[in-house]
Amino acid sequence: MLASLASRLRTEARECNERRLLVLSGVPSATREAAATALDAADVPRGATTVVGPGSILDCERLPVRDSGALLGRTRTAVVYDAHAACDPNALGRMVGAVDGGGLLVLLTPPLGEWSDRRDDFDEGLAVPPADVSAVTGNFRWRLVATLRAHPGIAIVDVDEGTVERDGLTDPAPRRPRGPPEPPTDHRFPAETYEACRTADQVSAVHALEALAASDHALVVEADRGRGKSSAAGLAAGALAADGADVLVVAPAYRNAAEAFARAAELLDTTGDLTGRDSDADPRLLETATGSVRFERAVDATDLPGDPDAVIVDEAAALPVSTLDSFLAAPAVAFATTIHGYEGAGRGFSVRFRDRLAESEHEVVEVPLSEPIRYAGGDPVEVWAFRALLLDAGPPVDPLVTDARTDSVTYRALDPADLLADEHLLREAFGLLVLAHYRTEPADLARLLDAPNVAARALVHDGHVVSVALLAREGDLSAATRAHMYDGGRVAGNMLPDVLTTQLRDEAAGAPVGWRVLRIATHHAARSRGLGSRLLDDIRTEFADSVDWLGVGYGATPDLLRFWAANGYEPVHLSTTRNDRSGEYSVLMLDPCSADGRALADRHASQFLARVGGVLADPLADCDPDVARATLAASERAVDPDLPDWAWRQVASAAFGPGLFDMAPGPYRDLAVAAFPDGVAADLSVRQQRLLVLKALQGRPWDAVADRLDYHSTAETMRAFGDVIEPLVDRFGTEAAHEEADRYR
Which of 192, 291, 579, 628 is least enclosed, having the fewest CB within 10 Å? Predict the structure, then answer.
């Protein structure tokens, strides 16, 4: 029975160049034996099979679930996911994309009727203290099972009972084999470049990428996963290098760009232009007689090392706007981005970065790819994965929310039961959350539906989600847990208490309870109308009487700092290391709701101002001065510089007379920290504020400050700095300071 079904599934998949999904449910040992039987009957070679999960099922490649990312960019005839120990949504998404046309995805599960009631290793990660795994629900798997039972191309076999619930056969019409695409009649790249293309879409994309040979061009290559955008980028990079260009390829990590490098290397091998490479297995540098293709992580390449002739940004949707913006300084640039994928959403890229791109000096060209490379269009397994993991979830279309205003929306909770009952509501809410963060992924869907410490709230306009926030409950930790954390132990899901306890040495920080805003997003068609602030106000109204604080942590930018400060949140910490993926320093902010929350916020906000001057002078010496000044301005606490008379005489003399800053830099740092929360810095120009940060707080050399702020000379920079210090002496100075200043007025 099983052998016959597996054989028929594989035959049908081959005939139409699609994939099929075979679900084997039952006890672990039985499903594993059944998987071996099915793959043998389907004539799948062991060398073309990967098993993901614990233990060894077959004599083939095996990957632990945590290493499923190794499948990215690879093609396998069959992938077996042993999900008995852990049903990881991210791993499932990676596996779907790795199966080739004519292949099988085999999913091993407990009995489907019981699966949502069981708890596994993935659920353990959703159990955030003080809750335990018993508080985790099974909503994600309940919905997953429902999609398995509803979509075509999915066979379900109950191995324990020996019955076929669904045969998964679709009896599709035969597809005509796809012939080689025609090359363009006029092309700059070598003919071999187009001979390597697999689809007409890919030919069009590579042809458009020829524009990178000239300056002032920017291309956006958008596609669902598996359409060959990375391959097109790699072919173009190789052709450009053969023509003498230095091409810099950047991505969040090398694995994101591995396919591009593989295709570039293949092309240069074919044309005979490859003169050197790092290695066959990991060629991060490809050299030709006069050009090269080289890789850098995006976070390390924002200053365009080596002055490349062209930059290709792969998986651009996974990068923040500030990082993407830096690549517009290149002579020519291409952004390859995934529209629907767990590593970033093309729509988010469009909304967040499109305006910057349009305002640049580059001529912008859009290059869409829709035809799959490895399997036929309309493949049922891809259609199922998009729905099951919400890879194609999006916000409501613009006309439905264009008229949304603060007085037209309704605040509501998005409880898991409501989301499960209303697929439309779930897709709109999750689609907005995808836009809120560059790294939203399928695991976040499970977190939304199952995690005991997660809640979602939204503003709805005429039944459509126009603004949404994802919240995480943190704190309320026992004394033993707080002591464990203080001694260096990790406690999952309590980011704010963890940082305040482990890094800032406050063992009591985990006792108060609060809600941290994980994500917040407003529909792009309804922004700048106060909807985000209205949502935060409603959240505060709902929770203020039941928690001690509201908080947030995010990659700091001046605009975001101003937004959160305007909504009552105050900075308590600025990280001293950059986020590996975003390249930004993170800021933590609190909005107290109770006496205990106020005490927590007071001591950490005050300590932050007391230590931030020293931090900016050392680990944060490279922090963007606009981020530094916005962070300081977000605090409204009065800071007394408390300088001794000798220090005031030094400062006043440097501001009004012949004194020199270099004789005593410390007092200026204290004065600068006081100036921003006080508001006196707000009366300075933006250039003057930057000067105050760069010199007084970060201690950068005079010539570097002059270059950064476009002063004509070091002497002019010093005079300008004295002008900046004058109002600070007037505002904070003691009698000794004023006496010194009056000597030179």
Answer: 579
